[in-house]
Amino acid sequence: MNEVNKTLYIPLYGKAQVSRKNIILNDKKAEEIWEKEQFPLKGKAKSKWLCYYMAMRARVFDDWTKRKMREGPDSLILHIGCGMDSRFLRVGRSAAQWYDMDFPSVIEERGKYYDSADNYHMLCCDASDSKQLDKLPEGENAVIILEGISMFLQNQEISALFDAFDRKYKRVSILMDVYTTFAAKASKYKNPVNDVGVTTLYGIDAPESILSNSISFLREHTMTPEELIDELPKGDKGFFRLMFAGKATRKIYRLYEYEKK
After folding, report:
1. Phi, psi at 18, each rounded to 5°
2. 3-class SS at 110?
3. Strand-by-strand arrangement of the 97-102 sheet
4. Strand pairing class (253-260; 171-179)
5. What is the predicted pLDDT for the residue at 45?
6. For position 118, which CATH number holds?
7. What CA–CA distance (Å, rounded) separates 46 from 35?
8. Residue 150: HSE in the Cβ half-sphere, 13 Å Cα cutoff
């Protein structure tokens, strides 16, 4: 795996650690994979605060995905940049068709721990390659999960990705976390991904800046809901709320929802 692919071990570790505490996220698959892989993370990548944040982010994406599945039970679920995430096992077993998509080396690694099924598929896909985007799965309605991927793509590559969704599907729902441009610049010097060799990231300040013709910005979400902060150990709630939630966090990290009706 290259440096970008190796970043998948950061959220994997975070979800495994939090799942062991029986808070926020029940992710036995993450626990299993981390126990076997034991990738040598270091520094900020192993911070307990980052573990909490990774688990909360995953839970917010989980809950959103479940809502969208209820609203459109016939929708395709596309998780692009899936890494080693087990969202299909956590919330997607009833999906009509679910596709986990990532670079070939990541999909090869996933094959050690996940099995395809009638409604579950693993596909190789480079989200920055417009030619590959023409091979997206066929369907009318798509629920698209872009978690932890936008910061590795230039804005024009995200726009091309949205254009591909627009061409392919009649209705689209997208949830995507983004860095601000300030955060992307600062990440060259201070970011957990530096610990696996990544120093170049990208940011988005205006959610409308990467739209296609028919996909519009719908709303901004929080990645740190109060009800999830309340699940943290008593001694950690106050510091987490101060440092990793609320207005201060919006200066560096945001969560946007888009749709095409």
Report:
1. -70, -40
2. helix
3. 120-124, 97-102, 76-80, 141-146, 171-179, 253-260, 216-221
4. antiparallel
5. 77
6. 3.40.50.150
7. 15
8. 27
Q: pLDDT by residue (tens digit) across 174-213?
A: 999 999 998 888 876 665 555 555 667 899 999 998 878 8
HSE on the CB side for 235, CA within 13 Å?
Answer: 1
Question: Measured between alpha carbons, how far is 53 from 135 in angstroms, rounded to an integer?
Answer: 33
Classify residue 44 by burial, with Cβ atoms within 10 Å: 0-12, 13-18, 19+. middle
Where is pLDDT greater, at 145 or 129? 145
pLDDT at 133: 84
Closest CA to 172 of 56, 80, 57: 80
Q: How far apart are CA 167 and CA 136, in angstroms?
A: 10
The two three-digit tokens of residue 106, written as one number: 């990541």
E-state strands within the chain: 76-80, 97-102, 120-124, 141-146, 171-179, 216-221, 253-260
pLDDT for the residue 4: 59
Contact 201, 184 (CB under 8 A): yes
Number of domains in the chain: 1
Domain containing residue 224: 3-260
Instruction: Please give the Cα distance from 238 to 231 (Å, whole number).
Output: 12
Which residue in 227, 224, 225, 221 sits closest to 257, CA to CA? 221
Tokens of 231: 């699940």
Contact yes or no for 53/25 (Cβ under 8 A): no
Quickly count: other Cβ atoms within 10 Å of residue 252's Cβ.
15
Q: Report residue 38 as tokens.
A: 């034991």
Residue 90 to residues 59, 65, 87, 144, Cα–Cα distance (Å): 10, 11, 5, 16
pLDDT exceeds 80 at position 168: yes
pLDDT band at 117 (very low <50, low <70, confident <90, very high): very high
